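Throughout this review, each integer encodes one residue's backbone shape. One record appears below.

===
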Amino acid sequence: MKVRELAVPGALEFTPDVHADHRGRFLELLRAEWWHEAIGRALPVAQVNCSVNHRGVVRGVHFTGLPGQAKFVTCLAGALVDVIVDTRAGSPSFGVHDTVLLDENTHKIVFLPEGVGHGIASLADGTTAFYLCSDTYDPANEFGVHPLDEDLGIDWRGLLAGSEPILSTRDSTAPAVAAARRAGLFPAYTKCLRLYQEGPS
């Protein structure tokens, strides 16, 4: 397993060792000790999510308030680009984003700490995203910003080879970054750091 830190501090890319032979492939997606070695803390798995997507679908940019969900995201079928965005108010890298290609061949995994947002762009019909979440879904603690907001600077159409992104009603009516900032939706960076060090209170 190889680990790489992304442009958003605290977000990580895991590349597992894939063992292939005439039968197919085998790999270990996650081990508890990998989390602890890379992140410095143990994380429970409280919920497992799976989304199956048509080509051109964009989901996000979504994030949670605190304590919120840390997430491990991988792709079981097809291919997607995971776009990781620093949505922590007061972070030196607030608004910075990075991208990781997740597909059924490399089986890479993205780790998103609490407070960090992300969105996915599906590159093929049937693309299946698989999430391990450290806490259960709480609709009152779920937030998002419009993925096409120019302040984010994400070239979704470029990621989709020129296709128009397919958005849900929720995402197409999500607030712009400036409006979300004025409304105080973004979790505070200092509180995120404290959570990472001390765990949920």
Q: What stands out?
A: The longest helix spans residues 189-198. Residues 113 and 121 are 20 Å apart (CA to CA).
